[in-house]
Amino acid sequence: MASLARVKLARRLPTALRLQIRSVQTSADTTQLHEKPADLSQPLLVRLHEDSFQSHLCDAPSLEVQVTRAELLRMYKDMQTMRRMEMASDALYKAKLVRGFCHLAIGQEAVSVGLEHGIDKEDRVITAYRCHPFAVMRGGSIKGVIAELLGRQAGMSHGKGGSMHIFTPTFFGGNGIVGAQVPVGAGVSFAQKYRGDKNCTFALYGDGASNQGQVFEAFNMAKLWNLPTIFICENNKYGMGTSAARSSSNTDYYTRGDRIPGLRVNGMDIIAAKHAVEYARKWAVDDEKGPLLLEFVTYRYGGHSMSDPGTTYRTREEVQRMRSTQDPIRGLQKYIEDWGLASEQELKQLDKEAKAEVDAAVAEAKASPEPELKDLWTDIYYKGTEPPKMRGRERKEVHVY
C-alpha cells in the first residue's frame, strides 16, 4: 500500500519533483539488444534502461550504445579476474598471511573495469583504499598486488606500502586518508591542463568521504580553474558501518558539486558504467567543459575492511539479495548468453583462465622474498634526487648511498 500511495503521489507532482522521487536503476541486466549484426566483429547496438542515468545541470548520455562482442568478453574476463584476485586476498588475510588494513571491492567490479575500458591509457586515476582492481587495470599486475599485501619484494611498492599504497605511472594510489586523494587528483589534472595534455584525471572517493571539507575545496578549485577533473563518488551505500542516509543530509551525491554538473549512474551494469565514463571524458577533454561529478551507485558484498563482518549494520538477507539479483558479473554473463555472443561453456573457460591466472600470481607472490633491512632506506625520495647521506633514528645511524 505504501508503494501504491507513492505512485499516486508522484502522478500529482510536477515533472522536476517526480524526477527526484525516481531512483537510478541498479539492476545489472536491464540493457536490451537493439540491433545485432550478422558479422559479430561489427558493433552491436544496445539500449540502456531509461533510468540508467540521472543528470544535474547537464544532459544525460544517450541510452543507445555501441559495443562489440570482443569488448564484452574482455570486460567479462577482467571482472572475473578482479573478483578472483580479491577473493584470493580474502583467503590470504584469513590465513593470517596478510596483516594490517585490507579493503576489498567484491561487488564493485563494474566500476573499476568499466572505468578502464572507457578511458585513455594516458589518463590518470587516483582513489582511496579499495584500490586493488584499479592498480591492476592501470598497468600493474595481480602478482604485484598480492605480493604487496604479503609484504614481499615483488610487490608493486616492494612490500613496503601494503594494501592502501599501490601505484603505477598512471595510477596515483591507493590513499589511506579519507578524502585526501580528491584534492591531489585536482592537482594532477591542473598539471595536465598546464602542460596542454589532452587527458583528464579521475578522482574517486566513497560516499563516506563525501562530507570531507577538502572534497568541496577541490570542487571549488576545479570549477574555478576549469580543470579536466572527473570526480567520482563510488556510492556503495555504507561508509564504514554507517548507511549513507545516516551520515549525509543529501544522498544525491551527483548534485553536491555546487556549479559542477553531475551524473548518477547505474554502477552495477558495466555497459552503463563504461558509457558514463566515455561521456565524462568527452566532457572534460574533447569539449573542454571543465569538471564533472559522477556518482556510481554500487554495492560491496563484504564489510568495510577485513576486520568488519559487514552484517552488524545491514542484514545478511540484504547482501544475499544483492548478490543473487544485481551482481555485475552475472548481469554481463546474461547479456552475452542471451544475445548469442558466447556459450555457457565458452564463459566457463574464461572463468577457468581467470582462476588459473590468479592462482599462478598468488604462488609467485608467496615465493618472493621479504624486504631486506637495507630496503628501509630506499624509495624515500624520487629516484635521482636522493641526498648522499641519510640519518636514521640516531645520529650515529647514517646510511650512505
Automatic annotation (TrEMBL):
CDD domains: TPP_E1_PDC_ADC_BCADC (cd02000)
Enzyme Commission number(s) of this protein: 1.2.4.1
CC cofactor: thiamine diphosphate
GO biological process, one term: pyruvate decarboxylation to acetyl-CoA
Catalytic reaction equation(s): N(6)-[(R)-lipoyl]-L-lysyl-[protein] + pyruvate + H(+) = N(6)-[(R)-S(8)-acetyldihydrolipoyl]-L-lysyl-[protein] + CO2
Gene Ontology MF annotations: pyruvate dehydrogenase (acetyl-transferring) activity
Record-linked InterPro entries: DH_E1, PDH_E1_Alpha_Subunit, Pyrv_DH_E1_asu_subgrp-y, THDP-binding
Keyword Oxidoreductase: yes
Gene3D superfamilies: 3.40.50.970
Domain Dehydrogenase E1 component: 78-373
EC class name: oxidoreductase
UniProt keywords, alphabetically: Oxidoreductase, Pyruvate, Thiamine pyrophosphate
Pfam families to which the protein is assigned, alphabetical: E1_dh
Main function: The pyruvate dehydrogenase complex catalyzes the overall conversion of pyruvate to acetyl-CoA and CO(2).
NCBIfam families membership: PDH_E1_alph_y
Protein name: Pyruvate dehydrogenase E1 component subunit alpha
Species of the source: Hebeloma cylindrosporum
